[in-house]
């Protein structure tokens, strides 16, 4: 049974693959909704436009597409970075197939677009979540092995202190006790919060405002803080104090980086931006609605050699840093089924926190 034109149109509209039809001059004759989403343009604006007015590539790619019209040869490109008309970039796989127009029989190009950004991000998130779980298991085992002998060392030092004949000698046992306590506290910080989360309805902007107040005090007003809030974000079911701690760890890292490596061209600044995102995937799970909180600084950026392992404990770019802040922040956000991602370059580092809102 032959499909009707209406059925064909409906199928094209529901494809996840972007489909475009171009004429010999690379003018767009047809684009389905998936293509509109990938190229971030409405069908009304896209139809009749030149393809390379919407998606910019190198000159050799333009030549290859024009040659396909003449030669009739199909080709495919993988993980191509396309610069869109709105100054954004997108990574695509696309195939170009010369076909005859079904009505006019004139030569046209059928282009199939597959977005790679979402797949790449999902893969990266899965790796990040797996790393976090592995790290948490290792830290728990290591903490157990460290805290047991520490207790014995501390207890023995206390018993020895009672037997010492002079107060001067007790100074050495005090050092042993103090260092054992310091190591115990470090292990406790590695393990993160030991109390169960006290979940309640939390306004995310109350959390960010509290963090901004703390950063303003700690930086003595040197850092300029800007807000770009989306007031439509509903309240989140979470532990208020743990959210404050997670956000504060990220902002404090940004503050320290900017103050220790000041930029000569512009003063240190921090931007807190909130948005709601629909149909967003975190790991394997797709969420109907997610809160996105971006923390943006104009510091020196994260060294490339640290970026791959940034959320591991004890990884720090500062000589006096413990490397626990981001690891703890990721663990706290994971507890509300969220995740922290980042991008970094000189003068612009963005930490993005994604928290699901389905429970509302």
Structure in words:
The protein is an alpha+beta fold and 360 residues long. It has three domains: 5-115, 2-Layer Sandwich (Beta-Lactamase); 120-191; 199-356, Histidine kinase-like ATPase, C-terminal domain (Heat Shock Protein 90). It is built from eleven helices and 13 strands. The protein has helices at 5-13, 33-39, 43-46, 51-54, 59-71, 117-163, 167-191, 204-218, 240-260, 304-307, 325-334, and strands at residues 18-22, 28-31, 55-56, 75-84, 89-100, 107-115, 199-202, 224-228, 236-239, 269-282, 285-297, 339-345, 348-356. Strands 2-1-6-5-4-3 form a six-stranded antiparallel sheet. A hairpin with a 2-residue loop joins strand 10 and strand 11. The protein starts with a helix and ends with a strand.
How many domains would you count in the coordinates? 3
Q: Kindly provide the name of the CATH class of the largest domain.
A: Alpha Beta
* Chain-averaged pLDDT: 84
* Main β sheet profile: 6 strands, antiparallel
- The run of helices and strands is HEEHHHEHEEEHHEHEEHEEHHEE
Overall morphology: elongated
So what's the oligomer here?
A: single chain
Strand content: 25-35%
Give the count of helical stretches.
11
Fraction in helix: 40-55%
User: What's the CATH architecture of the largest domain?
Assistant: 2-Layer Sandwich
Name the CATH superfamily classification of the largest domain. Histidine kinase-like ATPase, C-terminal domain
Rg (CA only): 28 Å
> Under CATH, the topology of the largest domain is which?
Heat Shock Protein 90
List low-pLDDT spans: none
The order of strands across the largest sheet is 2-1-6-5-4-3
Gap between N and C termini, in Å? 47 Å
Structural class: alpha+beta
The number of strands is 13
């Amino acid at each position: 049974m032959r499909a009707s034109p209406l059925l064909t149109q409906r199928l094209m509209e529901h494809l996840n693959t972007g489909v475009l039809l171009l004429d010999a001059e690379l003018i767009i004759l047809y684009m389905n909704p998936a293509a509109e989403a990938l190229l971030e343009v409405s069908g009304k604006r896209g139809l009749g436009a030149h393809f390379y007015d919407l998606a910019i590539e190198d000159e050799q790619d333009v030549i290859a597409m024009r040659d396909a019209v003449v030669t009739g040869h199909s080709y495919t490109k993988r993980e191509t970075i396309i610069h869109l008309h709105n100054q954004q970039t997108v990574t695509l796989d696309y195939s170009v197939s010369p076909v005859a127009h079904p009505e006019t029989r004139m030569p046209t190009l059928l282009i199939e677009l597959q977005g790679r950004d979402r797949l790449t991000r999902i893969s990266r998130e899965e790796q990040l979540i797996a790393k976090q779980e592995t790290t948490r298991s290792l830290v728990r085992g290591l903490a157990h092995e460290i805290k047991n002998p520490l207790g014995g060392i501390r207890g023995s030092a206390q018993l020895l202190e009672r037997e010492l004949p002079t107060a001067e000698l007790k100074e050495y046992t005090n050092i042993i006790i103090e260092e054992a306590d310091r190591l115990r506290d470090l292990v406790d910080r590695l393990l993160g919060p030991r109390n169960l989360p006290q979940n309640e309805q939390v306004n995310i902007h109350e959390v960010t405002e509290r963090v901004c107040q703390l950063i303003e005090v700690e930086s003595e007003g040197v850092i300029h803080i800007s807000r770009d809030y989306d007031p439509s974000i509903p309240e989140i079911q979470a532990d208020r104090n743990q959210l404050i701690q997670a956000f504060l760890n990220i902002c404090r890292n940004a503050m320290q980086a900017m103050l220790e490596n000041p930029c000569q061209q512009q003063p240190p600044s921090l931007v807190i931006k909130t948005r709601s995102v629909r149909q967003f995937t975190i790991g394997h799970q797709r969420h109907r609605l997610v809160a996105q909180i971006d923390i943006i600084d104009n510091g020196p950026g994260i060294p490339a050699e640290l970026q791959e392992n940034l959320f591991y404990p004890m990884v720090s770019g500062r000589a006096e840093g413990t490397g626990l802040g981001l690891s703890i922040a990721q663990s706290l956000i994971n507890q509300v089924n969220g995740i922290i991602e980042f991008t970094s370059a000189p003068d612009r580092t963005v930490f993005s926190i994604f928290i699901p809102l389905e429970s509302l």
